[in-house]
Every structure is written in C-alpha cells, then in structure tokens.
Amino acid sequence: MRRLAVIPARSGSTRLKNKNTFPLGGKPLIRWMTEAVLESGCFDKVIISTDGDHIFDAVSDLPVERHHRPHDDATVKATALDAMLNLMESTEEEYDVFAYFLPTCPFISYLEIRKGVEALDASTDSVISMTEIPETLQLACVMKDDWVLPVYDNLEQGMTNSKFLKKYYKPSGAFYMGWWDTILKHRNFFKGSTKGIRIPQERSIDINDIYDITLAQNLLSG
Questions:
Q1: CA distance 18 to 13
Q2: Model pTM above 0.85
Q3: What share of the chain is helix, strand, coil (3-state, %, to 5)?
Q4: Nearest Cα to 100, choosing from 69, 138, 121?
Q5: The domain containing residue 202 runs over which residues?
Q6: What is the pLDDT of residues 195-209, one digit of tens each?
Q7: Distance CA 138, CA 117 (A)
Q8: What is the 3-state secondary structure (H, E, C) of 53-90?
Q9: Burial (CB count <10 Å: 0-12, 13-18, 19+), residue 129
Q10: Residues 97-134: tens digit of each pLDDT
Q11: For the chain, how many structural domains are there in total?
Q12: Of the four listed, 93, 160, 172, 215, which is most buried by Cβ atoms within 10 Å?
C-alpha cells in the first residue's frame, strides 16, 4: 500500500506576512509539521506544494520533494482542497492513500498522525483531525436588531446545566486523509464514512495571525 503526504503552503499570506516561514521555537513554522509527518514514518513520499522558493528552502534539507504550486492554486481565493485535488489529478505515480497536512498547525504529534493512518480501514473513506469547540453552542443566540433569538431551545427550556449540553467538535486543520479513489470521487473528505481523531485543544492551534503566534510561543515557554 502506497501513501502520499502533501503539505500545501502558499506564499501569499495576508494576515501574517511570510506566515509559513515565521519563526516559532527557533525554527520556521512549516518545519514543525514537516518533521512530524516524516517522523510518523507512514508515507512513501512527502511533498511540499508551494509557489514560494523561500518556503521550500526552509525544509529542503529534509527528505521531501517540491511540487511547484500553479498560480491559479496559490491565490487568496484558491482553497487548499481544490489545490490538492488538482495535484492528485496531475500526479502520474499511483497511490492508495492521500493525505494533506496544514503547516499552520505546528503542535500535532507524529503519534496522532499514525493513529489517523491506522484508523483508515476498509470501512472508512476518510480520517480527519478534530478538536473540541470550547464554546457552548446550545447557548448561542442571533441578534435581529435588538431582539435576542436563541438558536437552540436550551435557553427557553432552562436546560443550561452541563448535563444538558453536548460536546461539539470541528476540524482542527492538522490533517485530512483518505483513500485516493474515494477522494477523487467525492471531491471532499466529509462525504461517505468519516472518522475523527481527537486532538487536545493545546495542540490544535491553527496559526493565522500574530495573536495565534503569540499564543503558540506562550505555550512553548510554559
């Protein structure tokens, strides 16, 4: 069974300039994820898909290859999913499993990556890293002018005790993986049968701006 891992990293970040190479803990941001993917030992090839030479240079000493990300897949409007689907369709080599990892999630463990790969079995189409949403969604309201409109009925029923409140999860952003043919068929990782690997909140930081970097640096310093 052959597995391909891709780390997409475009150069045109807007909220944090040079985000993917921003220094964190003494090394460029992209290096954290790249090292974790390599340390997992789960993939036959690891590719850095980028339009920026400086981004690839930050990890070029590691056993990775570069995919020159086309301009159309490196604009602000281009989604990572669309870029990955285009990469898959242009790949001549044959693989059974495809996975991509966002370099903005530096604290993912190689053990959690292994757990995700192991969870991808014959009954599963895809596996996604997930993290708990800290906010209590059942207490959410919308505001229409000055009027308060509860989204759920918990507030109207007085069910605000923790025993009435469910836990909700969201993709942590660290990884998306699945069977090659199924991904190309569904063109999505959430269609079909999807498993989630729970990632603790302290390792689910997704860095998009200077505030996220500050939080990550504070966690590193204890």
A1: 6
A2: yes
A3: 35, 25, 40
A4: 69
A5: 3-133+169-220
A6: 999 999 999 999 999
A7: 33
A8: HHHHHCCCCCCCEEEECCHHHCCCCCCHHHHHHHHHHH
A9: buried
A10: 999 999 999 999 999 999 999 999 999 999 999 999 98
A11: 2
A12: 172
